[in-house]
Automatic annotation (TrEMBL), chains A, B:
UniProt keyword list: DNA-binding, Transcription, Transcription regulation
Stated name of the protein: LysR substrate-binding domain-containing protein
Species for this entry: Halomonas rhizosphaerae
Family: Belongs to the LysR transcriptional regulatory family.
Coiled-coil intervals, chain numbering: none
HTH lysR-type domain mapped to chain residues: 5-62
CDD domains per record: PBP2_LTTR_like_4
DNA sequence: GCAGCATGGTAAGGCTTCCTGATCATTTTA
DNA sequence: TAAAATGATCAGGAAGCCTTACCATGCTGC
């Protein structure tokens, strides 16, 4: 029913007008002149009307051709725009990545990663959100973000996990606390200390140190409140090293040597769904960045 | 540089999504299923990114594919719109004709022509202007209108003339005028009559009756003023029959038999420039209409 | 007036593209 | 577990498209 207007012949028509002749158009399109003639003839046959005046030496548009010209030009421009955009998207020169991470990663790891990423891929827009680890998993599962960087408590259905970092658990206390000078600690040394639980405390579960949790009366999820408590000397807590904010001069981090505990931080994304080009670039970038510096 | 996105593969992608699978798309596009697979693969290679998820049984878009889909849909829709409009234009189902005629033709001939034209070509827009014959020629030459219907004083460079009607010259006078009862007149019978010249009087030039013009003191170009003068009995005039308005009960038209004069009314258009499809349809229609009824 | 150069159109051959039909591997369904 | 449906792959052939060579025509400068 509808004739299929191929783009190449349309380009020929535009080139003939813009370059002022069949020969010039042929040169411009890197074709031979007969190719131009035939493309035009084929197009005219499809439309059922001549586009160019015949007989006179010069290449002139018929009124029908004049009517068609701007529409052809628009269509070709539209094609080129789609083609260019798609190529930019595919080659990581454009696009958008939405990432969610736990706060510790967002503040301690992501800045370095993103700083180099935006240099390598200046066209890609980045959207970084942070939240506790279960929220991160949920956002990835729901498709709100394509990538997550977090620790998984357990393998979750529908999520793929790529390990990135081992994040060692330690004890955090004020610098004048008796434990502050230790190079490492056995969990029994914490017995009797006022332990403040936080969102990462469940990392102790399943280890001998778990019984410490049972004797803890204080739970604080907010990190700012927690550090304020610690600085006030109200008690001690356990944290992964990344979550420990080194800029607090009066707080000390002492690794827990027995049991040696860690959280495994990794990249998560939905299983079975491939990433957008931009997200794939980010994923590769994250992995290269963290393996270069040693996990 | 830019990959050439052919429309057929894009249609394949749309069909796969809309019909829900490669086989369904193949049926819908009247192609074999491998053709669809190959078209998609080729398109993916051009873009450098997969559009469909591989491995799982179903046909699902990658995020990149989801990004592309609406753009592909737009581009294909744009193509179809251009194709449909161009075809409508070419096949006289749409378009526009601008015509200029002399007033007599506009009021006496065009109504019948246009009445049947709009039935045959309901999609074509018509723009009819009238003016004296030299204005008509000018408008055609300047390209303001594509077609003119008028009489040419002389063959004009750049204009093509297709004769349509012979329009006989006669004398117009009031019904109580001594000449009103004649069936025909010899020019000498007009001698001594007060002759009012008008825009068509130069048709007498070059004939024996030309000397009547020299003895005429009154020239009136406006047809309404002229008929008012005639009805007032101020004088007589000469007019082509078509220009004589029969609805004036008190005026009579008496053909001039010696010399027998006529103006040749015809279609004019620019030489060497082909007509738009709509104008060509109009031209054919006018010629068929007037030859059917005898010139 | 005629050679020379430009225009665009035409014809025959070859290369590339694209489609088909048969077949395969995998997943879903009964 | 057999059957059906999915999409992928491959070889062969048809069609489209491009190229080289040649033709017809119109303009230009001597």
């Amino acid at each position: 029913m509808l004739p299929e207007l191929k783009l190449q012949p349309l380009r020929c028509v535009l080139a003939i007008i813009d370059q002022g002749g069949f020969h010039a158009a042929a040169r411009h399109l890197h074709r031979s002149q007969p190719a131009i003639s035939m493309a035009v003839r084929d197009l005219e046959e499809r439309l059922g009307q001549p586009l160019f005046e015949k007989g006179n030496g010069k290449a002139t548009l018929t009124p029908f051709g004049q009517w068609c010209l701007p529409r052809f030009r628009e269509l070709v421009a539209h094609h080129d725009r789609v083609s260019r955009d798609a190529l930019a998207m595919a080659s990581h020169q454009a696009g958008r990545v939405d990432i969610a991470t736990v706060p510790s990663v967002a503040s301690r790891v992501m800045p370095g990663i993103l700083a180099s990423f935006v240099i390598d891929f200046p066209g890609i827009e980045i959207n970084l959100q942070d939240g506790h680890s279960e929220l991160v998993s949920q956002m990835v599962l729901a498709g709100e973000v394509e990538l997550g960087i977090t620790s998984l408590w357990q393998p979750e259905e529908g999520l793929e996990f790529i390990p990135l970092l081992h994040d060692e658990i330690g004890v955090v206390c004020r610098d004048d606390h008796p434990l502050a000078g230790h190079a490492r600690l056995h969990w029994r040394e914490l017995a009797g200390q006022p332990l403040i639980r936080n969102g990462t405390s469940r990392l102790l579960e399943g280890s001998p140190a778990a019984e410490l949790l049972e004797r803890s009366a204080l739970y604080i999820s907010n990190m700012i409140s927690l550090t304020a408590m610690l600085e006030a000397g109200i008690g001690i807590t356990t944290l992964p090293r990344l979550a420990f904010q080194e800029e607090h001069a009066r707080l000390r981090f002492v690794p827990l040597s027995a049991p040696r505990l860690e959280r495994r931080i990794g990249l998560i994304c939905r299983a079975g769904v491939s990433l957008s080009p931009a997200a794939a670039a980010m994923q590769r970038h994250v992995m290269a960045y963290l393996t270069d510096r040693g996990a």
